[in-house]
Design brief:
Blueprint: H1 2-32, E1 43-47, H2 53-62, E2 69-72, H3 80-87, H4 91-97, E3 98-101, H5 107-121, E4 125-131, H6 135-145, E5 150-156, H7 168-194
Parallel strand pairs: 1-2, 1-4, 2-3, 4-5
Helix pairs in contact: 5-6, 6-7
Length: 195
């Protein structure tokens, strides 16, 4: 009985240690994202859901980093005027150069709807704007949906949990989602190789 208990203790220890090491690696990756100096692309893609994302996308459009801005995941109850105000764009720039995706409701949907729009417009190079902690999973989903399209990560920097413990839950939740997507993608790739 004692040996079985010790075995489960060892397994639990290894799982916890693995999760902590994995979170450390994830956090290092998130912290290593640099804000590109002068990115140029066919389009800017902003994924809704975090503070500063829309304003960052609007600023990139204003600075001419791409001719068009797609905002993916706009809730149906949010008005165009609300979005316009949050981007900081004037009405003329908003009317000419902003596309709103109101279909996507999660990161997979963001990737799917973006891929549809990108294929319809034959775009090859995109600036992806989202919170830094959301970038690893977003890029995995975007790469899956748009193989061959160049993705330029543009992080909206957040305070890491070791500086602001209030962000720990947010980062841990995103880490868990990222691991799930990464494992699923790895499993599918392994199955594909065997087939």
């Amino acid at each position: 009985m004692k040996s079985r208990f010790r075995f489960f203790q060892a397994i639990a220890f290894l799982l916890v240690a693995g999760a902590l090491i994995g979170f450390g690696s994830f956090s290092g990756r998130v912290s290593a994202y640099d804000v590109p100096d002068s990115p140029r692309a066919d389009a800017i893609i902003v994924l809704t859901g975090g503070v500063g994302r829309l304003a960052t996308g609007g600023e990139l459009l204003r600075r001419g980093r791409a001719p068009v801005l797609m905002i993916s995941g706009v809730h149906p109850s949010v008005t165009d005027r609300d979005i316009e105000d949050q981007t900081g764009l004037d009405s003329a720039d908003f009317a000419c150069c902003v596309v709103l995706d109101r279909i996507a409701s999660d990161t997979v949907g963001n990737a799917t709807e973006t891929a549809r729009w990108v294929a319809a417009n034959s775009y090859q190079r995109l600036i992806i704007v989202t919170s830094d902690y959301h970038l690893p999973r977003s890029l995995l989903e975007m790469e899956r949906a748009m193989p061959g399209v160049e993705l330029i990560p543009y992080p909206v920097v957040t305070t890491p949990p070791w500086i602001n413990p209030g962000n720990a839950r947010l980062w841990l939740q995103e880490y868990a989602k990222y691991v799930t997507v990464w494992l699923g993608r790895s499993f599918n790739a392994a199955v594909g190789r065997r087939a």
